[in-house]
Amino acid sequence: LAALTGLTSLQMSGNALRGAVPSVTPLTQLVTLDVGVKRFTSVHGSVWEHPALRNLDLSSNNLSGPIPGTVDLPALRTLNLSVSGLGGGIPVGLYTNSPLLNALDLSENAFTGPINAAIGALPLRELDFSDNAMGGPIPDQFLQLQDTITDLALTSNGCFTASQAVINFIVQFDPDWADGCAAP
After folding, report:
1. Is the pTM of this model over 0.90?
2. Lowest mean pLDDT among 13-22, 59-68, 111-120
3. Is 143 helix (H, G, I), strand (E, B) or coil?
């Protein structure tokens, strides 16, 4: 891959590759990296810090552990980490260092903790946190998504708490967002 410095799109989804997602450092013009539906077990750190990457799909892999706290993807628009085996807290850098992010799918993993207030500053159209172990307070900054969001899923998590205004916003998209809780 190192010799393909002008490569803008690398789509390797659905084949039998396994091991680590390789370094993308030499691929300075890479805009799309799709390595979904694989057997990858780790991701080279350069993937999480690529300045030109706009679309990243690591879904349906055999990864483990958290998203690195060093995430710095300033051009990122879409991120799909669904069914990837990741967990732990979602680092605030995912929100603050990816200011153009408009589609975020972290569904069917083992993410924990609350939703960070920094999410409200993103131009998100699609957000899927369903089927994780997240919970806790949803900050009022979540309401800043009202002007952009078209698809929202929070079901099958721990218990969230939120102001009535946030609850009213969420139920427009995900009426079962508090399933499993005695009361939202």
Report:
1. yes
2. 13-22
3. helix
